[in-house]
Design goal:
single chain; alpha/beta; Rossmann fold; 7-stranded mixed sheet; 7 helices; binds S-adenosylmethionine
């Protein structure tokens, strides 16, 4: 009887020890969650870059549909890493100019470094405020926002403030993921084109047109609006 009790106690002790060791083992915890995201492979990175290039090709086409001419003065809001700003700078040439606005000073610093390293003379970085782009000129022919509109806290105020930076014939172009598609989420990186139309009309603009494009699997809308001075 005593031996049986000892055996039960020993077995329980063994089980407890195994349980404690299993909890503490890092190898075990790393692989215990089936939904844990895998580390991105080199191949996936290459694929991602290819996709990015493909998307970029679409942006360029969408924007160049807008007839960007040498000599134009363009403001880009939320320029991010500056790829589009430098592309536009090529398009407007030495007689034109691009003002690359960002609210994030670290991103602006990268754009500044690119300007210096490439000796680019027709791009100027501009630090913006939440509801005011703070462009240093009042003759912008075009202002463009690619995947930035949905970030704006108060778009009506933002574009009301924008009027003073535009020339008399200046216009704004919004390119943003359309909320009205599978996966569209008003809390996410999407916006509704018809709501954007109302925002622009309330802010004192006339909406010229809204086009739609599919980039990879995502549907985007392209809205252009003129000011009514
Ligand atoms: C999704 S990224 C898009 C960047 C770039 N336009 C592109 O297509 O790669 C959004 C950018 O908008 C900037 N942003 C957000 N709110 C802004 C604001 N009120 N004024 C200027 N930039 C803003 C962010 O810092 C970020 O760089």
């Amino acid at each position: 009887m005593l031996n049986i009790q000892r055996l039960v106690c020993f077995t329980l002790f063994l089980l407890c020890t195994m349980l404690i060791l299993t909890e503490q083992s890092p190898a075990q915890t790393q692989h215990s969650h089936p939904n844990q995201p895998a580390i991105i492979s080199e191949d996936s990175l290459v694929l991602l870059n290819q996709k990015y290039d493909e998307a970029w090709h679409h942006w360029r086409n969408a924007l160049f549909d807008l007839d960007i001419q040498p000599g134009m003065v363009i403001g880009e809001v939320g320029a991010g890493n500056g790829e589009l700003a430098f592309l536009l700078a090529k398009q407007v040439g030495p007689e034109g100019h691009v003002y690359a606005n960002e609210i994030d000073p670290s991103k602006l610093e990268k754009i500044r470094e690119m300007i210096l390293s490439g000796q680019v003379k027709n791009v100027t970085p501009v630090l913006g405020q939440k509801n005011d782009a703070q462009f240093p000129v009042h003759n912008l022919d075009m202002v463009v926002l690619v995947e930035v509109y949905h970030h704006l806290d108060n778009p009506e105020l933002f574009f009301r403030n924008m009027i003073r930076y535009l020339s008399d014939t200046g216009f704004v172009v919004i390119i943003d993921p359309d909320l009205n598609q599978p996966g569209g989420d008003s809390e996410g990186c999407y916006s509704d084109p018809e709501t954007t139309r109302s925002v622009f009309e309330n802010a004192g603009y006339k909406v010229r047109k809204i086009d739609y494009r599919k980039v990879l699997d995502l549907k985007f809308y392209i809205l252009s609006a003129y000011i009514q001075k």
